[in-house]
Write a structure and sequence with these properties.
Length: about 200
């Protein structure tokens, strides 16, 4: 329940569904006090090689300290543990939703094996001295990072001559000298005129 009159929560959910998870589902003063609150996700199938996590969150912190936080943990055994921390945020975003992506490589680097029985655990904490700590989670999902192209040439080097200069814009100009940005919007990223993201 979003309460726009309570000055520490967002005005709506992040994805327009009309639903999200909040630190407390009621109007008025609903922040976390003297401890923590935890949300555990349903089982997520992340058995693909490049499966990664994405979610939206808001975190309002009136005090900037390392004990008031949002912690994200993951478990590969359907919640039986062990839980491994894969992200922590100590920064206040005000009343704004933010998006976090946690890539499969980051999860593996934390020593976690991707399985078909993954779960996420979100913990929001408020420790002494007490402050306003409000949080919400929305739009949790997984995505497959299948567009990893090694970039070996300078960005924009569409002729692959090892440099980037005025001649590299010529292939993207029409007969009137106007740049045709629709030709390949990704040329400045992956060095290729192919319409494929990096």
């Amino acid at each position: 329940m979003i309460d726009g009159s309570w000055p520490y929560t967002p005005f709506s959910d992040s994805d327009g569904s009309g639903q999200c998870y909040l630190t407390q589902n009621q109007l008025g003063n609903t922040d976390v006090d003297n401890g923590s609150v935890t949300l555990i996700s349903p089982t997520l199938d992340m058995s693909g090689e490049n499966d990664s996590i994405i979610f939206d969150y808001y975190l309002y912190l009136s005090d900037s300290q390392t004990t008031d936080l949002l912690r994200v943990e993951i478990d590969s055994n359907n919640g039986a543990g062990p839980w491994t921390t894969i992200a922590t945020d100590y920064t206040s975003g005000g009343r704004n939703w933010r998006t976090m992506k946690i890539y499969s490589s980051q999860i593996r680097d934390a020593g976690v094996t991707l399985t078909s029985t993954m779960r996420l655990r979100f913990t929001v904490n408020d420790s002494a001295p007490q402050g306003v700590v409000e949080a919400g989670i929305d739009a949790v999902g997984t995505f497959d990072v299948d567009c990893l192209i090694p970039v070996t040439c300078p960005k924009g080097d569409v002729t692959d001559d090892g440099s980037v200069n005025g001649s590299h814009i010529q292939p993207f100009m029409d007969d009137n000298g106007t740049v045709d940005v629709a030709t390949d919007a990704d040329m400045m990223v992956d060095c290729l005129v192919n319409g494929v993201c990096p």
